[in-house]
Amino acid sequence: MKRLMTILAAGVLAFSLAACAKKDDAEKETTRATENTQLTEASSSEEKQENTESETTKADVTTSEAETSATEATTEATAEATTTEAAETSAAHKEVLVVYFSATGTTKDVAEKIAKIEDADLYEIVPAEPYSDADLNWNDSGSRSTKEQNDSSSRPEIGSASVSLEGYKKVYIGYPIWWGEEPRILDTFVESYNFDGITMIPFCTSGGSGLGRSGKNLEERAGSGNWLDGKRFGAGPSEDTLRSWIEDLK
Ligand SMILES: Cc1cc2nc3c(=O)[nH]c(=O)nc-3n(C[C@H](O)[C@H](O)[C@H](O)COP(=O)(O)O)c2cc1C
Predict the structure, then answer these.
(1) Most buried among 1, 68, 70, 96, using CB within 10 Å?
(2) 199: CA distance to ligand 1 center in Å?
């Protein structure tokens, strides 16, 4: 009997131990499973965060690329506009300008012939107050022209709109000789402009007098520009005469 009781007690003990071991295993499994779940959740959250960040980065890059290409497009558009403007400016301006004043048409004829030969633009200095025949009477010591020529500080007003000299490399400047010099309205003109970088070529018409001091007077009063010597013509010079003078200037 005593032996039987011992066997039974050993059996109960073995069962209890096995049950405990099973319980331990089960608890360990549960813990592992929980840890795995937490790990999975953590890594999935990290992944999600990475994905979000990567998407954000992608979005940033895309935005930045879009901005860059927008900026480039604007820059290109601006460059094109500038080129177009430059083209229009150069198309609107010839390289040579012929400026002239003419009271009775003789200088005007020469100016137009020079402009034709040089393919130049023309600009007429028109007095704000036109000269009448009486004004031009050199036999009258009281006429307007005589009084103006006797006063080196006289500056008759110009009535024609001002001209832009931008883009011109060469400017011819023509006038009649009055009392051996340039009419004072030419002084008004040269004192109103900046001729920097422009070759200035005076020409005049007269009853017989030469250019005299007129070219030098204009150069001094202008104070800018590269002034050549210039030339006097009689009434109605031929195109050949003018062409050969122009060729000699080059
Ligand atoms: C007020 C006045 C003064 C002049 N003085 C001279 C002169 O000193 N020497 C000369 O040879 N011709 C003189 N002339 C003649 C002009 O220079 C000449 O007729 C000129 O070609 C006129 O040019 P225009 O028709 O373009 O005005 C004078 C003409 C005027 C009206």
Answers:
(1) 96
(2) 26
Ligand 1 site, residue 107, Cβ cutoff 6 A: yes
Q: What was the pLDDT predicted at 58?
A: 38
Element (H, E) at 172: strand 170-176
Find the helix or strand (DSSP H, E) in which 122 lies.
strand 121-124
Assigned token pair, 141 = 């010591």
pLDDT at 160: 97
Residue located nearest, by CA, to atom 28 of ligand 1: 178
Ligand 1, atom 7, residue with closest C-alpha: 179
Q: Please provide the DSSP assignment of 176-213 as one string.
A: E-BTTB--HHHHHHHTT---TT-EEEEEEE-SS---TT
Q: Are residues 163 and 195 in the same domain?
A: yes
Which residue range forms the structural domain that includes residue 49? 43-92
Alpha carbon of 88 to ligand 1 centroid (Å): 40
Residue 75 is assigned to a structural domain of this protein: yes
In the chain, the number of structural domains is: 2
Q: Residues 75, 138: one domain?
A: no
Q: Residue 235 has what pLDDT? A: 98
